[in-house]
Amino acid sequence: MARYTGPKARIARKFGEPIFGSVKSKKNYPPGQHGNSRRRKTSEYGIQLREKQKAKYTYGVLERQFRNLFDKASRSKGVKGEVLLQLLEQRLDNIVYRLGIAKTRAAARQLVNHRHIIVDGKVVDIPSYSVKQGQVIGVREKSKSLEVIVDSLASSGGSKYPWLEWDKASYSGKLLSIPSREDIPENIKEQLIVELYSK
Q1: Helix residue ranges, H only, the chain
Q2: Is 61 within 8 Å of 93 (Cβ atoms)?
Q3: Distance between CA atoms of residues 174 and 164, nearest Å
Q4: Which mean pLDDT values do the consecutive 10-residue runs of the chain (199 residues) have?
Q5: 114 and 78 in contact (C-beta within 8 Å)?
Q6: Phi, psi (5° rounding) for residue 16?
Q7: In the β-sheet with 136-139, what is the strand arrangement from edge to edge?
Q8: pLDDT at position 1
Q9: pTM as predicted
Q10: CA angle 93, 97, 99 (to 5 degrees)
Q11: Quick check: 90 and 178 in contact, CB under 8 A?
Q12: Rounded Cα–Cα distance for residues 189 and 135 (Å)
């Protein structure tokens, strides 16, 4: 299973944002030997590449998967960048995270891999599974007492997003609609990613 396993605080410092959740770091400047010094002006390509990397790290997707999603977005109707973010939001691991079942996307990915999550009553253990509108995502009956799930739901109180519906009694949520760009809270300039891949 391919995923990023490197230092998370270093990446968060690089982008100046908590893209892996609340990773603690005492240093508020970029990593590297010269992180504290004045930086050269970043090129246009560098800015576009940085935005793509930020999106990849945020959603926990590697290069090939990301490129495939971009190609799929390019073939779809609508604005390429917005469709790309919608496809990323529809990933099962992301939906589990958004519903509050897990505190981070990495934790959500692990819950999916370990067969704790069901979609329309069937176990799905593929984090990249694309959830369709109207599908119900829930926790397996024997996994409902798992401490990580109980703690996460207690601190989040379920989903806070208008495109998702959470049923506390059944430990399940529903994808009501595909989120619009305004509803996606991630600080990603998707147009820069489109420009990068369009070169």
Answers
A1: 8-15, 44-59, 63-75, 80-89, 92-98, 105-113, 147-156, 190-197
A2: no
A3: 6
A4: 61 62 56 57 89 92 94 94 96 95 93 97 96 96 94 84 92 95 92 92
A5: no
A6: 70, 25
A7: 122-123, 117-119, 136-139, 172-175, 164-167
A8: 47
A9: 0.83
A10: 115
A11: yes
A12: 29
CA atoms within 13 A on the CB side of 68: 6
Joined together, the tokens standing for residue 166 give: 């959470």
Decide if 134 contacts 90 (C-beta within 8 A).
no
Question: In the numeric block, which tokens belong to residue 112?
Answer: 């999916």
Counting every residue written for the chain, the total comes to: 199
CA dihedral 174, 116, 139, 157 (to 10 degrees): -90
Q: Which helix (H) or strand (E) holds 175?
A: strand 172-175
126-160 per-position pLDDT tens digit: 999 999 999 999 999 999 999 999 999 998 877 78
